[in-house]
Specification:
The complex is a heterodimer of chains A (364) and B (283).
Chain A lengths: L3 E10 L2 E11 L4 E5 L6 H9 L6 E6 L2 E2 L10 E4 L11 H11 L4 H14 L15 H13 L5 E5 L7 H18 L2 E6 L2 H7 L2 E6 L2 E6 L1 H6 L4 H6 L6 E10 L3 E6 L2 E6 L8 E7 L4 E2 L6 E12 L3 E8 L4 E7 L9 E6 L5 E3 L5 E3 L6
Parallel strand pairs in A: 3-8, 3-9, 6-7, 7-8
Antiparallel strand pairs in A: 1-2, 1-4, 4-5, 9-10, 11-12, 11-14, 12-13, 14-20, 15-19, 16-17, 16-19, 17-18, 20-21
Chain B lengths: L10 H28 L4 H5 L12 H11 L2 H32 L5 H10 L9 H10 L6 H26 L2 H9 L4 H12 L1 H16 L3 H6 L8 H4 L11 H32 L5
Helix pairs in contact in B: 3-13, 4-7, 4-10, 5-7, 7-10, 8-9, 10-13
């Protein structure tokens, strides 16, 4: 077990800069998730930690040892690939034991560790099968088994669940979380699915265009996004953004003029410059019954009745759009007028450059 | 569905299909049929000018016995095996290594090196005739099976490398990366992961190279003079008399000489067809 630390790590492919300087510490035993849209460099960063891509500049250490230019085989990491990368000509047992066999471990030890991994992952009845005879979920478990037997310092997962169907993905997600609790190993996990990130991570690293946007626990990112990118990326449905005019009020207040209403936010110690800013409010923090510190009128454009909840897509007085999450019994139909209640404590305010000025953290 | 199944086409098209297909097949096989029929013709037919007509009698037994009696065809066939088998092993083994290196490693000049292998195939070997003959003479390999083997290995490795490199490129690269992360050495990755997966390619390439080299006539006549090293393709010529062309015997000898590659093809047919398409598409 070990911690992983990256210091100003960069990656260039010719003139193209893919990773633009990353500083990150993953603590021993932590489940760290890299999340971001496709092409943000999260897989490249993982492959750099694995040693499959060279580090152009900067330093990487695993367990306190400098690993910047050490080959992948000597880093003590195990990696689970998106495609699973099972050796098609070997049985499940041979697949799991292959790495140990090739690095000169005794037969008895290989058998023992293979059996233990198979037990942990419920692969015992499948040990003599070839990968071609397994289902997607089973292949995934074999790939994980192959990583476990080596007792690595760090586990690396590259979008391991993206090839599975929705139901299996949810199941494997909980199995992976359980595995992390059992093994207490450092795990770094790459995904583009923010639900996976929120449910599994101790620490989420949000990446965009080769840079870290924010690092924090799932709830920290949800309640206190540093910038517009993180605010928009974390949470589903997406946070609503409105361009608004803000004036500084007395006693550290920010007066936000919304279409058809004004809401006063507590700015705390932050000084509000005023002028044009971006107002952010999550759909689940808008009250469809009109309760709150301010009320605005809107017209329902589209409604999705999901049973447990209803999603309204509404148009405000000035034509801007918002999503509202109401409870499943809300009865408005498209075309109806709806009164929305806004809780001032849940509102976020962002500067024109995208940085957060006020975070409406409801946990405070 | 495209193309339309023949069962659903108009009766006219169906009738045409049934007529033309056997006809086309007959035309395609005509030279082979000609050789096969000539090989059982009595010698008198050819003297009488009956080259393409109905044979006047069946002389198959006499002709085939004569082939084995009048010429050292057994020795020629043995020589052909002595040339073909080491060439197949040499060229395929070399190209497994070169193909692996070119497909897996990124290094400067990789593509240029690969193109050099491919470009070798475009050189008409007629222009190599004189220099290669001089080279084998100077190396003391003229008139030996060894000389033929070395030349064939050198000449076939280019095509084999093209084939193997593309086949290995088609394998999922994650398999190799995964093994690297597991701490497996590069040689063992080749030996235990890539080589077993290349089996269909190796089988297909072996049949192809076996056929190419077995059927070679050009180099057999350029690099060999004596009976002791003469492969069967060139050796068949000795069945002709000094003044008379014994086409019935040459045909019978050709049929005998063609049997090994045909047998090889049918034995490996399954791998051969699978291998040729396997390199082209993923999955």
């Amino acid at each position: 077990m070990a911690d992983v630390s990256l210091r100003d790590v960069k990656k260039q492919f010719g003139a193209l800069s893919v990773i633009k300087g990353v500083d990150l510490d993953v603590k021993d035993g932590e489940f760290c998730v890299f999340v971001g849209p496709s092409g943000c460099g999260k897989s490249t960063l993982l492959r750099m930690i694995a040693g499959l891509e060279d580090i152009t500049s900067g330093a990487l250490s695993i367990g306190g040892k400098d690993m910047t230019s050490v080959g992948p085989s000597e880093r003590g990491v195990a990696m689970v690939f998106q495609s699973y990368a099972l050796y098609p000509h070997m049985t499940v047992a041979e697949n799991i034991g292959f790495g140990l066999k090739m690095t000169g471990h005794s037969k008895a030890m290989i058998a023992e560790r293979t059996a233990a991994a198979a037990k942990l992952l419920q692969l015992e009845p499948l040990l003599q099968r070839k990968p071609g005879q397994l289902s997607g979920g089973q292949r995934q478990r074999v790939a994980i088994g192959r990583a476990i037997v080596r007792n690595p310092q760090v586990f690396l997962f590259d979008e391991p669940l993206s090839n599975l169907d929705a139901a299996l993905r949810v199941q494997m997600r909980t199995e992976l979380s359980k595995l992390h609790q059992d093994l207490k190993a450092t795990m770094i996990y790459v995904t583009h699915d923010q639900v996976e990130a929120m449910t599994m991570a101790d620490k989420i690293v949000v990446l965009s265009a080769g840079k870290i946007e924010q690092v924090g626990s799932p709830l920290e990112l949800y309640h206190r996004p540093n910038n517009l990118f993180v605010a928009g990326f974390i949470g589903s449905p997406k946070m609503n953004f409105l361009t608004v005019n803000v004036t500084a009020g007395e006693g550290g207040k920010a007066v936000v003029s919304l279409p058809g209403a004004t809401v006063v936010l507590d700015a705390g110690a932050t000084t509000i410059a005023g002028g044009e800013m971006t107002f952010g409010l999550r759909p689940e923090h808008v009250d469809a019954k009109g309760k709150g510190d301010a009320q605005i009128q809107a017209t329902v454009k589209l409604a999705e009745y999901l049973g447990s909840e209803t999603l309204f897509f509404v148009t405000l007085a000035d034509g801007s759009e918002m999503a509202v999450k109401a409870d499943g019994l809300a009865s408005q139909r498209p075309g109806d007028t709806i009164t929305l209640g806004i809780n001032a404590k849940a509102c976020h305010l962002f500067n024109t450059d995208g940085t957060a000025v006020i975070n409406g953290d409801l946990t405070r | 569905m495209f193309p339309t199944p023949i069962q659903k086409a108009s009766p006219f098209v169906q009738a045409g299909y049934k007529l033309l297909l056997p006809l086309a097949l007959f035309l395609w096989l005509l030279p082979l049929i000609g050789v096969a029929v000539t090989s059982v013709r009595p010698a008198g037919d050819l003297a009488a000018g009956n080259y393409f007509g109905i044979p006047s009698g069946f002389a198959g037994v006499e002709n085939y016995t004569a082939v084995f009696r009048d010429s050292p065809i057994g020795l020629y066939i043995l020589n052909s095996f002595k040339v073909t088998i080491p060439t197949v092993i040499g060229a395929v083994a070399l190209s497994c290594l070169t193909g692996f290196a070119l497909a897996v490693y990124k290094f400067k000049g990789n593509l240029i090196l690969f193109f050099m292998f491919v470009a070798g195939n475009f050189i008409p070997f007629q222009i190599l005739m004189v220099p290669v003959r001089d080279l084998t003479l100077k190396l003391g390999l003229y008139d030996t099976t060894m000389g033929l083997v070395l030349f064939h290995v050198a000449f076939q490795t280019g095509f084999c490398t093209l084939f193997m490199r593309n086949f290995i490129k088609g394998l999922p690269f994650a398999l190799i990366e995964s093994a690297r992360v597991e701490g497996v050495s590069e040689w063992r990755i080749f030996r235990y992961i890539v080589l077993p997966l290349m089996r269909p390619a190796i089988a297909a390439l072996s049949v192809l190279i076996f056929t190419f080299v077995w059927n070679d006539y050009f180099w057999a006549t350029v690099l060999v003079q004596g009976q002791h090293a003469m492969p069967v393709t060139a050796g068949l010529n000795s069945l002709n008399g000094q003044w008379v062309a014994a086409w019935h015997l040459v045909s019978a000898g050709s049929i005998v000489a063609a049997l090994p590659p045909v047998a090889m093809f049918f034995l490996m047919q399954r791998h051969f067809i699978a291998g040729l398409t396997l390199g082209a598409t993923k999955g």
